[in-house]
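Reopening this ticket.

The earlier resolution said the output was attached, but the attachment link was broken on my side. Pasting everything inline this time so it's all in one place.
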Amino acid sequence: CMTRLRLYLKDDSVPKDDEVKKISGVLGVVRGGQQYQIIIGTNVPKVYEELCKLAGISASAAVKDDAAAAQDAAITKRKLTPKQVGKNIMGYLAGCMTPMIPVLLAGGLFRAVNSIFGPDLLGLYSMESNLYILFDFLYDAAFYFMPILVGYNAAKQLGINGMLGSFIGSVLMVPDFAAFATNGQPFTVFGIPATVTNYAQTVLPIMLSVPLFCLVYKIVKKFMPDLLISMPFILCLLAPLGTIVGNAISGGLAWFGMTTGWFGVAVIAALWEFLVMSGMHLALMMPMMADFFETGIGSGPMNAGNFATWACFGVALGAALRLKNKDDRSTSFAAFASGILGGVTEPTLYGICFRFTRCFVTMAVGGFVGGAIAGIFDLKGYAMTSANFLSLLCYVGGTNANIAVGVVASFSSLIVAAVLTYLFGFSKKDLEDV
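Inline output:
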């Protein structure tokens, strides 16, 4: 993502992609969301500076005031057909997450280092060692504060100062506010009851909140403090919306998984990563974990998430083998490593699936296959392990057949997702442009 020159064009029909690709140093062209992206490589900062000189634009124009941002937003307006609305939504979501890929990869790789060299595998240092704690800090820095990072990107997408978006994310992350959720205390905003939730490591609440803030900011900023108007809606409605809906969906899925046998396990495995992106998986996990702590055995839906994770590994592997651009292949291999070694799937979800939406389907099919195998053979889990390749150890403790089913189901999810991603995960245009 850092290797692309991104342009907002008044008329995006003017550039002829074939002619642009012939320019020396250009690796490809991508039309993503509302942007015209020219893939250049590590020299993109130099090209950007030269382009600014040729166009008579100050290089500092990347940090725009509100008037310039509003002008840019006007340039990129399109007729709002249903198809264009869908494109705008996907462009907004991708724009919020795509710039974070280097951060997600870095955090995931630190988790992978701990998984390999720490007590889980090689045991070169203990969980109490400063090195383990340091790498854990670095992982948390990338993932725990996601609302702040996503808020910045969301605000920039919508044409206002990115720091205001970060501020909204910071409001959701204030420790004293999170303490209300931990302690179960009620909280009100100007007398309006708020659903208090811990928003750490979530993205949808901030993605929903920033657009409202931007709307209010642009309308009333000349008359009164916009935060006074937007905060009740953010804290009482939009931010908790994902959690409220998620709890209802998760409760329904838990019931569905418990009452429909192997099919329910397969469906939950197919949908699991979508639940992770919205934070809904936590509500689904709670009753399952309570049952596990009581019986010492995890069965049915509790094991479904494992196969969704292995399907994510497969998507990253399939993308790494299929994509032609060197930078994209490198990013995909890094996502695969951070997943299978560190148990971190966000680089795959946000770095690959959001860009190439067909991969969401291949991931879901891979998870479904693994979940179906586990459900049909009544797979049991006997331990809580890391979400990386060591998750195979959770099936140890019962029969040898149980271990075999766990291994077969896991690798089936990976292989099916990898093959489908390789064959069907990308359109011809994706492969030509990337």
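Reporter confirms the inline version is readable. The first helix runs from residue 17 to 21. The longest strand covers residues 28-32.
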